[in-house]
Amino acid sequence: MGLISLLDAFSMSGFIVAAVFSLRIPEPTLGNPPRILLFLAMCLYALIGFFNLLEHTRVTAIFDPFEDYLEILFVPLLLFFLFSFRSALAHQEKDRALEALEKSEDKYRLIVENQNDLVVTLDNERRLVFASPSYCQLFGKSEADLLGRSFLPLVHEDDREIVSRSIEELYRPPYTCFHEERAMSARGWRWLAWSNRAVLDEEGRVTRIIAVGRDVTDRKEAEEAFRESQTRFRLLLDSTAEAIYGLDTEGRCTFVNPACLRLLAYDRQEDLIGRNMHDLIHHTRPDGSAYPMDECRIFSAFKRGEGSHVDDEVLWRSDGAAFPAEYWSFPVYSNGRITGAVVTFLDITERRHAEQEKENLIKKLQAALAEVHTLQGFIPICANCKKIRDDEGYWQQIEQYIQDRSAARFSHGICPECRSLLYPGFPNNNE
Q: Could you tell me which CATH number the domain at 116-221 has?
């Protein structure tokens, strides 16, 4: 055999091997029809190689008429195989896509059915086409009771217009919206927050609306309670006679009440909010010397975490005048750490005047009392001569005893009875 014969034999062997392996291709990789066609094509080509190999022998003349038919038949079989192979690949891709879609749907349904958030799908008529179990549970209805019906009857009548305007925004870019509404649930009125997104087709038209909601009633109630607390706090600040202001840890004012503005002679809260209060009202001592901030007893509240009460300092008004003040400073804590301080103060000018007047009155009284001597208790006096025995045991004339112990002084005279007795010849003016 020559080189050509060896090549024909090698080619024939290769197609035989290819035919065998075509039968061993897994079905998921290549379907049965394409696999059989590939096997037949490989067999035909191996048979043609066999015929070419026989051309070098005498028996080749017997198969020559069939060789041409086999070569003609090979081409359509090969084309048919390619078509079938392409169809099989397309079918497999479709099967894989469907399988992936089913898995994705299963995962999506698993997530939707096992989460607390509410998930619904609406058509363009705003009717429910899907409702998650959490949504059905919230409203105490089955999926059959909800699907195909509008959700708007469940919404509070005061919120329906807001909801309708929100959904209309989904029909224009960016095809998303957010709104909060009150809805009648199985537990009564509840606040729901909804994040909505439109689903578009290939032509950009809205086909579905997917909405994900959450029950935010607790948050709403907390916000309302916080607003009420702020209102009560503001009423308390506005009605109290004491001046009150707040500080952050840098000494900047965070809030003031009207009494504080009035005592410090400021017109607006904005004149104090955000400014350093020590630099504004506490920068100088009563004697006129500078008052450094690091020595200020107001700031010790948040520097050392302890309150302070002071009544011997002055505060300064916006017009530059000072007034004696009594203040209390207490630290403010948040999450276990100091976030600032609250300061309450009073103008004690009138108290200082009253205290001064009191001191002056006390001094006058003490001076008056110093001039008054009071005799009290038992005083031993002689029944005959009327002398008085003093504390040292000496007997003194009553005049001398009294003069020594009081501011009284005596002038001597004689009464009519004694004059008649002692001086009977002395004229009596009464006669």
A: 3.30.450.20
